[in-house]
Amino acid sequence: MRYLKVYWLHTSKEEAASEPWVLLYEVGAQNLACRAIEVFGDRLMNKLTDLYSEAIEITEIPTISEINEGIWGEHLIAYEIGVEEFEALWQAQRYSGDLYVSME
Question: What residue ranges do the domains of the chain occupy?
């Protein structure tokens, strides 16, 4: 398993109000997400156990370097995290970490 934390740097107030600010992924075999957490601006979290239930096409979770190179969007910044951080957030009721990071 590998664990990713992806910051989504929004470019509009509308986008920031309706889309997650932080995405966390537990990535397993064939680079598919096993679980995911979406963190919104109000720090509430949406926890997902089946990201592919309504998918027409299943897409692998990209690598950290692919995300940071802008292949999947120029407003994403990814970091590897440990299983402990992911599990702590999975058990939490509310997100208390950073909502954004600098692109520099």
Answer: 2-91
